[in-house]
Write a structure and sequence with these properties.
This protein is mainly α. Strands 1-2 form a two-stranded antiparallel ribbon. A hairpin with a 3-residue loop joins strand 1 and strand 2. It is globular and about 50 Å long. It starts with 16 loop residues before the first helix and ends with a helix.
Length: 213
């Protein structure tokens, strides 16, 4: 096939899908705040998926936030990095990247929960997709400086590597058990393969060998 689906390019358009994603997250947060019982149907709950066929949760979980702090940090991350990644990729490509990374992170987490017999867990939040956006940002803008806490300047690739190390350490040693470290790492993994297979850029080569896209 001369133009396989994996390499089929979207025509470049910019229609501010990042803002749409932020608004959707805020709307869903308001709905679940006003109707807390709806959160259980929108979050990713392995037991409900296995026993009740709630497959929509692989999509809705990443638009459902547990608290005001979670939506604040996730949406700030999407705000600071999403707009620039979207302008670089184009809105359609960025939307596909965001959704596939979030859904993929949920699927990987679900598979591990099922394999380990952890059916009663409740997974929610945009963190997996937002971590994917951070990886894309560091890949497209490797010389960019990010000011941690508004003070400490760190190059974007170094920050990604630090975050990855923290997530692996926290997952292995079960630190901050209320945080879905597994899903954050899964977001990185899915985003990595998307960037390599679909976009044609390897984040590791950008970080360590100076490759540019």
């Amino acid at each position: 096939m001369s133009n396989p689906l994996l390499k089929r390019n979207y025509s470049y358009q910019y229609y501010n899908v990042t803002l749409v994603l932020i608004v959707l997250n805020v709307i869903v947060f308001l709905i679940t705040t006003l109707s807390p019982q709806s959160q259980i149907y929108l979050a990713l709950v392995p037991q409900l998926i296995v026993q009740g066929g709630a497959y929509w949760q692989f999509v809705t979980y990443m638009f459902t936030q547990a608290s005001i702090l979670q939506i604040l940090f996730n949406m700030l991350g999407l705000f600071f990095f999403g707009f620039q990644v979207e302008r670089r990729m184009g809105s359609s490509e960025f939307l596909a990247f965001y959704l596939i990374s979030g859904i993929g992170a949920g699927l990987i987490s679900f598979a591990i929960y099922v394999l380990t017999g952890t059916y009663a867990v409740i997974l929610l939040g945009a963190s997996g997709a937002v971590f994917a956006v951070l990886l894309a940002y560091a890949t497209f803008f490797p010389d960019s400086m990010i000011y941690v806490m508004g003070i400490l300047p760190i190059r974007a690739p170094i920050l990604v590597l630090i975050y990855t190390g923290i997530e692996i350490f926290s997952q292995v040693f079960s630190l901050n058990s209320g945080i879905a470290h597994l899903t954050h790492l899964a977001g990185f993994v899915v985003a990595y393969f998307y960037l390599v297979l679909r976009i044609g850029v390897n984040p590791f080569k950008v970080f360590f060998r100076g490759q540019r896209w």
